[in-house]
Amino acid sequence: MMLSALVHYDEITTNVQDVLLGGSDTSAVTIEWAISELIKNPKLLGKAAEELDRVVGRERLVTERDLPGLPYIEAILKETMRLHPVAPMLVPHQAREDAHVDGYDIPAGTVVFVNVWSIGRDPTLWDAPEEFRPERFIGSKIDVKGQDFELLPFGSGRRMCPGLGLGVKVTLLSIANLLHGFVWRLPDGMAVEELSMEEIFLLAVPRKNPLEAVFEPRLQSHLYM
Ligand code: HEM
């Protein structure tokens, strides 16, 4: 009885840890990459601000209800997830039965890694894959929900990320509010070419050096209270 209560407690702790870890770093890393790419491309920063001013205006903050009307912000998120997937090889999976995929035999028991980092930069799938171009997703049906195999930042299938819905909303809303609420630029005297985009390959792939940026309010002061 005591043992089963202990196992039960351990399972709860592990599951809570999974959700906290799975849901915090992933979103933070994605948001930092999105802002970095935009600071490097001031024209895109301007396009995002234009969409936010047109749809939301300057009298209030962005809310979840605004998200469906912000296709450019959504395109920024997809483009960030294409170039900077937080789990570059997803997590290891094991083939349960013999399979034949694209000319390769995969025996049962094989540990399979899916290199979504490379897929996102594959020149046979993407035009100018090294360029950050959110426009490529405007009018495109490609989504991050695990059905379009060229873009799998949340994985696919029965073990794909269960936090997809929450993850997309949190990152979209954060990026939208950061761009709507602040003007972003590099510190004085620093040119965009000097902004390092080096990655560090850990469990997630954050920036090697934390982003240093200057941000100034662009809305009325009472909105920040
Ligand atoms: C930007 C946000 C996020 C990204 C990019 C992301 C990405 C991923 C990826 C790639 C996996 C592995 C999928 C696979 O096995 O192939 C995963 C698993 C998981 N994620 Fe997320 N995630 C995000 C947000 C969240 C959130 C908000 C939560 C929870 C609140 C969460 C909870 C989990 C859990 C529990 C798993 C393990 C699922 C399993 O093994 O069955 N994630 N996530």
TrEMBL record:
GO terms for molecular function: heme binding; iron ion binding; monooxygenase activity; oxidoreductase activity, acting on paired donors, with incorporation or reduction of molecular oxygen. Heme binds at C161. The keyword Coiled coil does not apply. Keywords: Heme, Iron, Metal-binding, Monooxygenase, Oxidoreductase. InterPro entries: Cyt_P450 (IPR001128), Cyt_P450_CS (IPR017972), Cyt_P450_E_grp-I (IPR002401), Cyt_P450_sf (IPR036396). Its cofactor is heme. Pfam families: p450. This is Flavonoid 3. It comes from Panicum miliaceum (Proso millet).
